Amino acid sequence: MAAPYIEQERRSELEGKAYGLGFRFAQTIDELNFVITKVLLGYLERIGTSDASLNELMRALECAKQEFYRQVVVPYERRKRRENGDVYC
């Protein structure tokens, strides 16, 4: 499984470059979608488009989605459930 937990040194290098791609500047979900799409296209341009590279990219996106859900969405929903009450009583 692809995971965002890479070594600290490499993480620092990549964070600076990622922010330079517009992540800090995207103001709408459409702009964020554009930035993510450009990252994906740039990656494909560098490694080449093939069944394997497309499958790997889809795997990375799915893993990122699942990790974001676990780390960000679930805690938020738990907090809101405590604040507002559970729908599934």
Brief sketch in words of this structure:
The protein has three helices and no strands.
Give an overview in words.
The chain is built from 3 helices and no strands. By secondary structure, the chain is mainly alpha-helical. It has 2 domains: 8-48, no CATH class; 50-82. The model has no long low-confidence stretch (mean pLDDT 87).
Oligomer type: single chain
Secondary-structure-derived class:
mainly alpha
Mean pLDDT: 87
One letter per element, helices H and strands E, the order comes to HHH
Number of structurally distinct domains: 2
- Helix tally? 3
The rounded distance between the terminal residues' Cα atoms is: 35 Å
Query: Can you count the beta strands?
Result: 0
Taken as a percent bin, the fraction of beta residues is: under 5%
Q: Describe the biggest sheet? A: none
Give the proportion of residues in helices: over 70%
Poorly predicted runs of 5 or more residues = none
Layout: helices, strands, pairs:
Layout: H1 8-23, H2 29-47, H3 51-84
Task: Give the tags.
89 residues; 2 domains; mainly alpha
